[in-house]
Structures are given as structure tokens and as C-alpha cells.
Amino acid sequence: MLSTGDFKRGLRILVDGEPWTIEDYTVQTPSARGAATLVRTKLRSILSGTLMEKTFKSGEKFEEPDVSFKQVQYLYGDAEAHHFMDQDSYEQHSLSHADLEEDAPWLGDGMQLYAVFYNGRMVGVNLPQQVEAEIAMAGAGSRTDTASGRNLKDATLHNGVQIKVPLFVEIGDRVVVDPRSREFVRRAK
Predict the structure, then answer these.
(1) What pTM was estimated for this model as a whole?
(2) Which of 35, 78, 133, 136 would you label with 63, given CA atoms 20 to 30 Å apart?
């Protein structure tokens, strides 16, 4: 059993039967006599990725969730789901389109990534911090854009995701993108 005294960033706990990761926490000591010390947390759901702020009383106990990470290879996506293969056991796992939501456009055939397993069942994937993609369409920039301080233009990647890129990026260029923030990082080499 874990208690609020064990809290640290990255620790995984069960809250109301659901697994959460502690993103940040602060301890708040009251000035009034007899008041309880509070621990304010920012939690990220392991299953859905949503953020939640929750306050606990000092000394509360929590169970550790059965969460593991395994390296998998993305095989393909069809009308029903996306399919992955465990790199150690060669066992295949599937996730529905609803389970992947915003991560699905970034998946490419043969991509190596880590899958999240909760109670032995695959529930999600951890995308790499940076993904390489090709520019399919790019808006036109003008000379006045740099003078006015707007040095970005709209672009659409081959996977349909729209991002902002510098004016020098053209159609067909390969770029490196952060899939979480959907921001341009640099040109690919």
C-alpha cells in the first residue's frame, strides 16, 4: 500500500478503481490548529490520458495498479481496429479506433513503440516524443509575414494533421513533429 507520503512524480496509483499517474503534487500545511495537512495533485489517467486535479488528506492509502509497458510493433489498421505485435512473445493485440483517438494518425507500418497494459490487457500506446512526417500541403507565405512577426504558415501532413510550420518549409519536405503538442520541431535530415 502506498500513502500520500510516498507521492512523487511518475508514481502510479489507483483512485476510485482507476489507474492514474501523478504528474505534480504539493503539500499544503494548514496554519489553523487541528486542521489536516492536504496533498494537492495533478493526475493523468492511464486509460484515457485526461488530466484531473484532486486533493487528498495526508496519510490516505492507495493501491498500486497492475500497469506494465511492453515494446510492440504497429502492424496495420483496418475498419475495426489497429493491430500491434508484442516484440518478445510475438502475440498480437488490437485497439479500437476509439481507444487510440488522437494517437492513430501518427501510427505508421512497422513503427516501434511502447504499449500500456492494465490488468494484462492492452489499453493504449506511448508515442515517441518526435515523429517524422511529410508535408502534403502548405499555405503560401508572403514577405510581409516576416516583417509583421508572423513567421509561420499552415501546413497539412500526409496523415491529415494540420500544423504550423516556418515559411521555408515546402510541399514534399520531411519534418519532425511533436505528436502530443502537434508542433513543428525541425526539418528532417
Answers:
(1) 0.67
(2) 35
